[in-house]
C-alpha cells in the first residue's frame, strides 16, 4: 500500500474509532475530554459491558415485577438461585422455548 493509501486507511480507522467512542461514551454538548482517543477506546469494552449489564438488570426487574403483578404470593427470592433443583433440564429448555415469544412481546412493550 502506498503512502496515500495508508493515510486514507489511517483516517478511516480514526473516524471509525471516534464513532465507537461517541456511541459508547457520548460527551455532553459543549464539553470536552482530556482523554485521548486511544484511552477512550481502552475503556470502551468495560462501558459496553456496564451498559449491557444495567439494561439486562432493568429488563429482569421488569419481568419479575410483571410476575408479581399477576401473582402477589409469588416468592421471587428462589429465582436468584437459578433453576429449581427438581426441574429436569429438558423441562427447563421446553419452558424457555415456550417463553421466548412472550419475551419478545414484553421487550417490544418496553422499547
For the report, how would you describe the main beta sheet?
none
Instruction: Please estimate the helix content.
Output: over 70%
Q: Give the beta-strand count.
A: 0
- How would you sum up the global shape? elongated
Distance between the termini: 46 Å
Strand composition percent: under 5%
Low-confidence stretches: none
Number of helices: 3
List the helices and strands and how they pair.
Blueprint: H1 3-24, H2 37-70, H3 89-110
Helix pairs in contact: 1-2
Task: Summarize the structure in words.
- The chain contains three helices and no strands.
- With 111 residues, the protein is an all-alpha fold.
- The chain has one domain.
- Helix 1 runs parallel beside helix 2.
- The longest helix has 34 residues.
- The radius of gyration is 22 Å and the shape is elongated.
- The model has no long low-confidence stretch (mean pLDDT 89).
Short synopsis of the structure:
The protein is mostly helical and 111 residues long. It has helices at 3-24, 37-70, 89-110.
Keywords:
111 residues, mainly alpha
Amino acid at each position: 500500500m502506498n503512502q496515500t493509501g495508508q493515510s486514507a486507511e489511517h483516517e478511516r480507522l480514526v473516524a471509525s474509532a471516534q464513532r465507537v467512542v461517541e456511541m459508547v461514551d457520548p460527551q455532553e454538548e459543549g464539553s470536552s475530554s482530556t482523554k485521548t482517543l486511544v484511552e477512550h477506546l481502552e475503556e470502551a469494552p468495560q462501558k459496553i459491558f456496564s451498559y449491557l449489564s444495567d439494561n439486562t438488570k432493568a429488563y429482569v426487574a421488569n419481568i419479575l415485577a410483571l410476575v408479581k403483578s399477576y401473582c402477589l404470593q409469588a416468592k421471587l427470592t428462589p429465582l436468584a438461585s437459578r433453576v429449581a433443583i427438581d426441574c429436569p433440564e429438558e423441562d427447563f429448555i421446553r419452558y424457555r422455548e415456550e417463553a421466548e415469544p412472550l419475551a419478545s412481546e414484553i421487550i417490544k412493550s418496553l422499547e
